[in-house]
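Sat 14:20. Reprocessing the chain from the morning session after the first attempt stalled halfway. Input below, unchanged.
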Amino acid sequence: MVRPLEHKVALVTGAAKGIGQGIARQLALQGAAVVVADIDAETGQLATAELQELGAKASFIETDISLEEQIIAAVNHAKTHYGGLDILVNNAGINLSYDATTMISQEWDAAMSIDLKGAWLCAKYAIPEMRARGQGAIINIASVHATMTTYNVFPYAAAKAGLVGLTKSLALDWGKHNIRAVAVSPGWVLSDVVQKSFAEHKNGLQQEVVEASIPAKFIAVPDDIGHLVAFLASDNARYITGTEIVIDGGISARFAEQ
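Finished this time. Tokens:
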């Protein structure tokens, strides 16, 4: 039986752990060759080894998406090792919190270079490879913070809103070349960072309290996001482009605390 992503090549940024690792795993299980791109070489190599143990074609390249030359190298890695690029997942990002009145320009630039500019640069260099293959899918991992947010997450929410806008523009401009762009906006996900916050009760967060606030009554795991991304990257989703898909257990349907 042919898997939906057989013979496709995917580049996933921030794929060493958390949501990115779950995405890379599900893409690989659906048949894609996966380039694991991450700034952390040690965990990136471990994540790549896990994919290889699953029987997948996978390789690692150390990548800081705030550096244009490293993005170029990652795209070239996909082309050299696997012959091209069909799927780009812009997952790498950082969750920063600043006061808008005290944040300085250099801090803003550093935050945007990773959470927004890096995604544009990855798309910039991925699109020519996709055009050469006659099709492509760009999946941008945004956040529910793009459209609904909470206190003290500036400028993260601004960057994620920008990522949704970038998605729509890419879809409009490149649809004629059979290149799709979709934003995926997760809510709570049990990533390493979130689990650590729960363990330390950081900002007063308790897992059971968070779970109770979610209509689905549980918190997603990274592979839940991976399942959605694998579908969106496949030809089964060929008519889905230029939109944002929220995956949050229903939390954004709630008007206010009850």
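The longest helix spans residues 105-133.
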